[in-house]
């Protein structure tokens, strides 16, 4: 056999440019075909001692040679474009140069969505009747969780690959620039497996075999993926762990594992990975009960739970709760990397330790109500109770921005506000105890904060005016309009009183004439009765005869029937 073997029109990985693959005893090399402008193509080399296994399988671009590499990284390299006839030749080459066997992998093309899942080496494999339907490298799995008792969800968008989407309401995030950087094309973001049944827990242990507990197959599969995938780091790399932290958004109790480059929220059902570089702002906000404090973390890009995005983390701490904490950092690292902003040991309230670590590791400024911030007229707290649609929350008017804290917080900077409008609920009367605050932004949607206490109006208006925020008071305009309507109503009432008095006088003068008329009517009625008796013996009047001749069966309309009959003059005989 020759000193080397060459295969033409071979693609390396996902490269769209074909090239030549050369194999020899020391390893292999691939070089892309030169482009039309004469520039040389990319090259790739791989030493023989780094190759672990070889596989042959059918793919979209012909047949593929897959090489699994040695080492902890467990990478693999793929070369597409082989023909069916190249199998025997390639198998002989690998056996001669590298003393390795070429394994054939059968691929299922049935298109079934039911089969068997397994984790082999560093891949999640889905098999249909023993043949490979598809496989997913575990290193591409960004997160995994138990969607239900029999369902496991896997997310494939790693936070490092996401682009900021300016979804936190900040004009300073570069929203226009980030929109132009959106990823192109389709991308797999999530996959779910339905795995029913149970398996024995701890079946590998020989002790207490009779007392082995069972767990769902979905949970066992989920834990196996976590053990293989790059979802967390080893315990020695962690800086500190905060146990059972109450998180309001997304709701639950989570363990917060803080690492040098990111943190993980580990809950009973969901795990989240948050890069410190994705943290855009930090807020420490006291609750009005003086017992709890809220810690709000703005994220861009947000964390995901299926199709739901969470651009904010909202944590809640007890103000008086303290803890002793020791960081897994040496003094040299604290001084050099963190510029002495951290301490190795803390004995402080829990919320202070957490906020300090978030502030230092993320490099963001911590925002809290200051001495000149808004104070409620009712209780002196820096927040107001109000609603957005049907959701209750707390509105914090801060020095340069306002934030509404609830399940989905709303953040607005004052320099992004076109104007704020004070209005009553549906044009309510002056006795209304609440009002609405409508905030119109320059570059964002309009927000309406409803059912604010009426006594907070003056303090809130003064706060916005002091920060040069344009204020429009529809409440005052409505009050003036109502006063004008009330004055007009009073004038109308006086006119109606005058009119009623004059009408009453007229009605007092008429009774004499009316009574005389009634007496005349009585005389007329008696004379009509006499006429009726006299006329009943007549054969008919000329008018009735002419009516019968002209109109046939009908004698007239209802209006005509209602007309009074003309009286006949009595003649003396």
Mean pLDDT: 79
The first-level CATH class of the domain at 238-263 and 279-360 is given as Mainly Beta
Number of helices: 10
As for the CATH topology of the domain at 238-263 and 279-360, it is PH-domain like
- CATH architecture classification of the domain at 238-263 and 279-360: Roll
Question: What Rg do the Cα atoms give?
Answer: 44 Å
Tell me the span between the first and last alpha carbons: 161 Å
The helicity comes to: 10-25%
**Total strand count, please?**
34
Sheet-strand content, in percent, reads: 35-45%
Structural class: alpha+beta
Keywords for this entry:
34 strands, 573 residues, nucleosome binding, RTT106/SSRP1_HistChap/FACT, DNA repair, PH-domain like, DNA replication, alpha+beta
Mind explaining what this structure looks like?
This is FACT complex subunit POB3. It is found in: Nucleus; Chromosome. Belongs to the SSRP1 family. Keywords: Chromosome, DNA damage, DNA repair, DNA replication, Nucleus, Transcription, Transcription regulation. This protein is α+β, with helices and mostly antiparallel strands. Among the domains are: 5-105, Pleckstrin-homology domain (PH domain)/Phosphotyrosine-binding domain (PTB) (PH-domain like, Roll); 111-169 and 188-200 and 215-231, Structure-specific recognition protein (SSRP1) (PH-domain like), CATH 2.30.29; 238-263 and 279-360, Roll (PH-domain like), CATH 2.30.29; 384-478, Pleckstrin-homology domain (PH domain)/Phosphotyrosine-binding domain (PTB) (PH-domain like, Roll). Helix content is 24%, strand content 37%. The strands form eight sheets. The chain has an eight-stranded mixed sheet with strand order 4-3-2-1-7-6-5-8. An eight-stranded mixed sheet has the order 20-19-18-17-23-22-21-26, with helices on one face. Strands 27-28-29-30 form a four-stranded antiparallel sheet, with no helix packed on it. The model is unreliable at 166-181, 204-210 and 508-573 (pLDDT under 50).
């Amino acid at each position: 056999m020759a000193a080397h073997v060459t295969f033409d029109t071979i693609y390396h990985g996902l490269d769209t440019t074909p090239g030549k693959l050369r194999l020899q005893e020391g390893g292999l090399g691939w070089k892309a075909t030169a482009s039309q402008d004469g520039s040389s193509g990319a090259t790739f080399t791989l030493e023989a001692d780094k190759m672990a296994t070889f596989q042959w399988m059918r793919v979209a671009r012909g047949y593929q040679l897959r090489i699994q590499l040695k080492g902890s990284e467990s990478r693999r390299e793929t070369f597409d474009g082989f023909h069916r006839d190249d199998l025997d030749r390639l198998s002989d080459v690998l056996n001669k140069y590298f003393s390795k066997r070429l394994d054939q992998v059968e691929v299922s093309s049935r298109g079934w969505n039911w089969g068997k899942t397994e984790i082999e080496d560093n891949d999640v494999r889905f098999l249909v009747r023993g043949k490979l339907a598809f496989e997913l490298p575990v290193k591409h799995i960004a997160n995994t969780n138990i969607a239900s008792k029999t369902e496991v969800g896997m997310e494939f968008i790693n936070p490092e690959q996401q682009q900021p989407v300016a979804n936190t309401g900040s004009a300073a995030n570069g929203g226009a620039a980030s929109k132009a950087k959106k990823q192109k094309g389709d991308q797999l973001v999530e996959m779910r497996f339905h795995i029913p049944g149970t398996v024995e827990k701890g079946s590998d242990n020989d002790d207490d075999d009779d007392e082995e507990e069972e767990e769902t197959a979905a949970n066992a599969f989920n834990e196996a993926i976590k053990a293989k995938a790059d979802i967390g780091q080893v315990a020695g790399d962690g800086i500190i762990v905060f146990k059972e932290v109450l998180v309001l958004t997304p709701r639950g109790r989570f363990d917060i594992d803080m690492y040098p480059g990111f943190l993980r929220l580990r809950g009973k059902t969901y795990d989240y990975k948050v890069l410190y570089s994705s943290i855009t702002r930090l807020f420490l906000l006291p609750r009005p009960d003086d017992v709890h404090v809220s810690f709000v973390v703005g994220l861009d890009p947000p964390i995901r739970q299926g199709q739901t995005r969470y651009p904010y983390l909202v944590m809640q701490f007890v103000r008086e709760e303290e803890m002793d904490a020791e960081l897994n950092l040496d003094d040299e690292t604290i001084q050099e990397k963190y510029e002495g902003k951290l301490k190795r040991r803390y004995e402080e309230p829990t919320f202070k330790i957490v906020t300090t670590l978030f502030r230092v590791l993320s490099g963001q400024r911590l925002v809290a109500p200051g001495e000149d911030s808004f104070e409620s007229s009712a209780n002196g707290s820096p927040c107001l109770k109000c609603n957005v649609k049907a959701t209750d929350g707390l509105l914090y008017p801060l020095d340069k921005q306002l934030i509404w804290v609830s399940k989905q917080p709303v953040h607005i900077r004052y320099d992004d506000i076109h104007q704020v409008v004070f209005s009553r609920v549906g044009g309510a009367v002056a006795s209304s105890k609440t009002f609405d605050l409508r905030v119109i932004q320059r570059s964002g949607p309009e927000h309406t904060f409803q059912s604010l206490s009426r006594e907070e109006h003056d303090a809130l208006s003064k706060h916005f005016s002091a920060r040069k925020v344009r204020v429009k008071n529809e409440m005052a305009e409505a009050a003036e309009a109502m006063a004008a309507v009330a004055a007009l109503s009073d004038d109308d009432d006086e006119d109606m009183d005058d009119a009623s008095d004059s009408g009453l006088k007229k009605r007092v003068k008429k009774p004499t004439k009316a009574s005389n008329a009634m007496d005349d009517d009585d005389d007329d009625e008696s004379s009509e009765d006499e006429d009726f008796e006299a006329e009943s013996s007549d054969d008919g009047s000329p008018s009735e005869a002419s009516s019968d001749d002209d109109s046939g069966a009908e004698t007239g309309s209802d209006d005509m029937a209602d007309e009074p009959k003309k009286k006949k003059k009595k003649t003396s005989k």
